[in-house]
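Hey, I was hoping to borrow your eyes for a little while. There's a protein on my desk that I can't quite get my head around. The fold is given in discrete form, as structure tokens running alongside the sequence. I'd be grateful if you could look everything over and explain what you see. Here's the protein in full, and shout if anything looks odd to you:
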Amino acid sequence: MIFNAPLAYIIGIPAICFIYACIILAEENFLRGKFGAEYDAYAARVNRMWPDFRGFSVSVKDMNFRWKRVFSKEYGTLFGLLLAAIGLRSWSLYWVMREAARKEIIVTLLMLIPTILVYACIRVLKKTGRLDEDDYSTVDQ
């Protein structure tokens, strides 16, 4: 989709659908083997692909959102996404405009500095235990 290549749509979308279908079947097989009839009863009442939000508010009413936990658990994913976005933006600017986009490419690449600094700070906080929370309840896990 990034490169607007029709061949990527023709090959990529069916490939992704096939891969996810295999993952779903493997996970269902694993869960059926682990939980047996209990999983079969669950699978009979829950749609495999589309969520049903009835009862969602009851399920989450006792949950608490914790920013510390988000930073502690998801900083690597967010960092990877930001690196990919910065890299793709820089590469696409260069590919399309070459030297005419030099200034914009430099500005885009400069966004790596705060991104890396924030990542490093969160990593240090995590490794030193400052992002730990002792009061995780079973509801949040």
The radius of gyration is 22 Å. The chain has six helices and no strands. The longest helix spans residues 67-97. Confidence is low (pLDDT under 50) at residues 137-141.
